[in-house]
Amino acid sequence: MGRVAGAEGGRVPRVRRGPGLDLDRYDADLAAPEVADRVRGDQRDGLGLGVQGTPTFFVDGARIPTPASYEEFAALIEARLAGGTG
Q1: Residues in CB range of 86: below 8 A, 6 or more apart
Q2: Is the link from the previous residue into 13 a cis peptide, with omega within 30 of 0?
Q3: Contact 17/1 with Cβ under 8 angstroms?
Q4: Residue 27 burial by Cβ neighbours in a 10 Å radius (0-12, 13-18, 19+)
Q5: pLDDT of 27
Q6: What is the pLDDT at residue 16?
Q7: Which CB contacts under 8 angstroms, 24+ apart, belong to 81-84?
Q8: Alpha-carbon distance 16 to 26, whole Å?
Q9: How confident is the model at residue 54 (pLDDT cuts 50, 70, 90)?
Q10: pLDDT of residue 17
Q11: What would the pLDDT profile of 8-31 be if each residue is shown by its tens digit?
C-alpha cells in the first residue's frame, strides 16, 4: 500500500486496508482542497456543539452521554418520541 502524506505520521490509515476501497480515489479525495474545507467546517461545527470525540450523540438537539448499549439508546429515543425526557 502507498502512504498518505501527513496521515498518521506517514503510516497507512487502517481504513485504507478494507476490501473494495479505491485507493487512488481515496488519495485524490484526501488531497482535495474542498474535502479539507468540508472537514474543517464539520470540525468547527462539532467543537461549537461541545463535541470532543467520537462517538458523540445528540437526541432532540441535546448532547447525551454515550449509551452503554443499543437497548439503552433505543429506550432513550423512544422516551423522547413519547414526549418524555429520557
Answers
A1: 59, 64, 75, 76, 77, 79, 80
A2: no
A3: yes
A4: middle
A5: 83
A6: 59
A7: none
A8: 8
A9: confident
A10: 63
A11: 444 456 665 667 778 888 888 888
Instruction: Check: CB of residue 13 under 8 Å from CB of residue 4.
Output: yes
Taking CA atoms, 16 is separated from 8, 10, 68, in Å, by: 12, 13, 29
**Residue 69 pLDDT exceeds 90:** yes
The residue written with cell numbers 439503552 in the block is 72
CA dist., res. 55 & res. 33, Å (int): 26
1 neighbors 23 (Cβ within 8 angstroms): yes
Residue 69 three-state SS: coil
User: How many residues does this entry show for the chain?
Assistant: 86
With 0.85 as the threshold, say if the pTM is over it: no
Q: Which three cell numbers stand for residue 5?
A: 502524506
